[in-house]
């Protein structure tokens, strides 16, 4: 995942565990300890990049469970995006990394004959607050974005 992308809900998988102390010999104990940083769900993870989250998990594992943890975080499923208004098939669609607004409109069946092809509005959460932007078709899309295609007047 490119640096700077935000994480959402996640599931933590442990491939290898090397206990530092004998009393912490089980993976479950380590996972409960790491759970304070990276539970399945949103608490404590939203807004972190994959690198930041991996560093946080490694730090928690290092403090009593694993001598030299190597943590890689990967996003398995992204939040969907939504396309509304003057497109052939408005609705919810799965996000794919590196999508543009134009790609999203194509996935939704393209513009209808009444669509304003030069005016597309995106609703996106910025610092937790929904914000609306008029953006060009080549602009990158993010998970959770809502695209509104307006009707043209003439």
Could you explain the architecture of this structure?
With 154 residues, the chain is of the alpha+beta class. The protein folds into two domains: 1-77, no CATH class; 81-151, Outer membrane lipoprotein wza domain like (Outer membrane lipoprotein wza fold like, Roll). The chain has helices spanning 27-34, 50-62, 101-107; strands at 81-85, 91-93, 115-126, 129-135, 146-151. It has a five-stranded mixed beta sheet, with helices on one face. The longest helix is centred in the middle third of the chain and has 13 residues, at 50-62. The N and C termini lie far apart (43 Å).
Strand order of the largest sheet: 2-1-5-3-4
> How many E strands?
5
The tally of structural domains comes to 2
Radius of gyration of CA atoms, rounded to a whole number: 21 Å
Describe the global form. Answer: elongated
Helix fraction, binned, reads 10-25%
Low-confidence stretches: 1-5, 7-11, 14-33, 35-42
Which structural class fits the helix and strand makeup? Answer: alpha+beta
């Amino acid at each position: 995942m490119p640096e700077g992308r935000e994480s959402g809900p996640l599931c933590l998988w442990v491939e290898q565990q090397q206990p530092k102390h004998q009393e912490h010999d089980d993976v479950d104990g380590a996972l409960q300890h790491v759970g304070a940083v990276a539970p399945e769900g949103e608490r404590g993870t939203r807004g972190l990049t994959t690198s930041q989250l991996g560093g946080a998990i490694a730090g928690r594992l290092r403090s009593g469970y694993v001598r030299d943890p190597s943590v890689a975080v990967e996003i398995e499923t992204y939040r969907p995006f939504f396309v509304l208004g003057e497109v052939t098939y408005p609705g919810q669609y799965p996000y794919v990394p590196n999508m543009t607004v134009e790609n999203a409109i194509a996935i939704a069946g393209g513009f209808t004959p009444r669509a304003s092809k030069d005016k597309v509005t995106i609703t996106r959460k910025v610092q937790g607050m929904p914000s609306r932007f008029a953006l060009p078709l080549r602009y990158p899309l993010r998970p959770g974005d809502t695209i509104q295609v307006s009707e043209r007047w003439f």
